[in-house]
Design a protein that fits this description.
heterodimer; A: about 90 residues; mainly alpha; Non-ribosomal Peptide Synthetase Peptidyl Carrier Protein, Chain A; B: about 400 residues; alpha/beta; Peroxisomal Thiolase, Chain A, domain 1; 14 helices; 14 strands
Chain lengths: ~90, ~400
């Protein structure tokens, strides 16, 4: 359980790094509640973020309905973590 | 409408649904998919998306003149094959074709993508300096139009129209305008594309608009588009001449509408799309209530399908509750600059054979796409008036309005 939580935290940390770098956002502003709109993350920034996530986690994330409806940083972390875990399960 | 009436007297197609218009007709009627596992000469293992609607079992040597083959990229092979089918169906004689009054105006978004990819791979990756000397004549975007004009002896203006996914509709619009203006008697138009290369696929992946599973336009839970390829070619003729030579008329190209969003590069604008739809109806002299069927742009991306539905609802008003609007891209994929040509042929087939082509892979309603998209199965229907929408990156919109030969 602890190791699962640690793993989740590690993934969340990497996702935040990628959002900060590819979305060109100050990492200190990346709270779970911070909205993408407030952070001025636009669709082209999301394309860059999704590319960074693919390079780090080897998971392809299309601009589907779920991604288009993401509102805040917490949503991004939860959705991408779920996709990464689904891929890991699929591979094992 | 201004100038003489313009009719369609022949059509041809090649795409993932079949290697001629007859096969495409059967596939659309029977709701078959043209999407399958991607086949590429190299680097397939470096892609995340591994499906596309590719042409299968096409043997250029068996259906195209041997002397032309060295000069033909795949996109030009498709165009010439579809053109020869259309010319044969139209029953045009050499004397009709070998004329300065016959033009070839074709859309393509990219041109000879396979030729370019092979040349770049040989030069950069394999460090070869020995490239195919025909690389440039094959890859130029006007190659298909030029090769067709040479094959047929058509000495009227021949050129390519390049406006991404709206290329074919823009080409047909110019063709219509030329005949109306008295600058041509017949125009071979439509478009072609063969853009499924390894780096091309990756470039689309990077934009995140490709779906990893077969696309499901207008459906809840849709995940993007699937690339396709092929050509859809039609013969436009001044009606008076077509009647005089006793040609069978399949449809009338009654109007065109074009607009530019002049806004976002990638995100479509319902106002721009709606303006083109309205302009097409105005050009045809028809009210919104006349429309029976729309062949949608319908890419299957979340944004396109919402924007397209909104545009159609705004312009058609209550009529939108009584029409069908399907996306044949769900079966033949998104053939970019050739897409409008394929969808024009699909619309003519639907009109001629009295059915509505389906939108495949539909899994349930998206409340933001609340329109009858003919889910999953074709339906019998008589179509008097149809629109075919094409919207492109760059904010470019081009809509064709077709009417049945008996419609008045």
């Amino acid at each position: 359980m602890t190791s699962s939580t640690e793993k989740k935290n590690e993934i969340a940390g990497k996702i935040l790094d990628i959002i900060a770098k590819e979305g060109m956002v100050d990492k200190e502003k990346l709270t779970r509640e911070a909205t993408l709109e407030d952070l001025e993350i636009e669709s082209i920034d999301m394309v860059m973020i999704l590319q960074g996530l693919e390079e780090e986690f080897e998971v392809y994330v299309p601009m589907d309905q779920e991604i288009m409806e993401l509102k805040n940083v917490g949503d991004v972390i939860d959705t991408v973590t779920r996709l990464i875990e689904a891929k890991a399960e699929g591979a094992s | 409408m201004n100038g003489p009436s313009v009719v369609i007297t022949g059509y041809g197609a090649i795409c993932g649904l079949g290697n001629n218009a007859g096969q495409m007709h059967q596939s659309l009627r029977q709701a078959r998919t043209g999407i399958s596992q991607l086949e590429l000469p190299r680097d397939l293992d470096r892609l995340q998306v591994t499906i596309a609607a590719q042409v299968r079992g096409f043997d250029a040597a068996s259906c195209l003149p041997e002397k032309r083959l060295p000069f033909l990229d795949l996109f030009a092979q498709y165009a010439l094959a579809a053109c020869l089918e259309a010319v044969k169906q139209a029953g045009l004689e050499d004397a009709d074709l070998r004329s300065h009054r016959t033009c070839v105006i074709l859309g393509t978004g990219i041109g000879g993508a396979v030729t370019q990819d092979n040349a770049f791979y040989a030069f950069y990756a394999e460090r070869s300096k020995r490239l195919d000397p025909m690389t440039i004549p094959r890859l130029m975007p006007n190659a298909a139009a030029s090769q067709i004009s040479m094959e047929l002896g058509a000495t009227g203006p021949s050129f390519a129209v390049c406006s991404a996914c709206a290329s074919s509709n823009h080409a047909a619009a110019i063709g219509l305008g030329m005949i109306r203006a008295g600058l041509a008697d017949r125009v071979i138009t439509g478009g072609s594309e063969a853009c499924i290369t390894p780096a091309g696929m990756r470039s689309w992946e990077i934009l995140r608009v490709l779906s990893p599973v077969p696309c499901s336009p207008f459906s809840k839970g849709r995940t993007g588009m699937v690339l396709g390829e092929g050509a859809g070619i039609v013969i436009l003729e001044r009606e008076e001449l077509a009647v005089a030579r006793g040609a069978k008329v399949y449809a009338r190209l009654a109007g065109v509408g074009m607009s530019s969003d002049a806004g976002d590069l990638l995100r479509p604008d319902p106002a721009g799309a709606g303006a083109a739809i309205k302009a097409a109806l105005d050009d045809a002299g028809l009210p919104a209530d006349a429309v029976d069927y729309i062949n949608a742009h319908g890419t299957g991306t979340v944004t396109n399908d919402i924007v397209e539905t909104e545009a159609v609802r705004t312009i058609l008003g209550k009529r939108a509750d009584h029409i069908a609007m399907s996306s044949t891209k769900s079966s033949h994929g998104h053939a970019l600059g050739g897409g409008g040509g394929l969808e024009l042929v699909a619309t003519i087939i639907a009109m001629q054979h009295k059915f509505l082509p389906p939108t495949l892979n539909w899994k349930g309603e998206d409340p933001k796409c609340d329109i009858d998209c003919v889910p999953n199965e074709a339906r019998d229907a008589e179509i008097g008036v149809a629109l075919s929408n094409s919207f492109a990156f760059g904010g470019l919109n081009a809509v064709l309005c077709l009417t049945h030969p008996d419609f008045s």
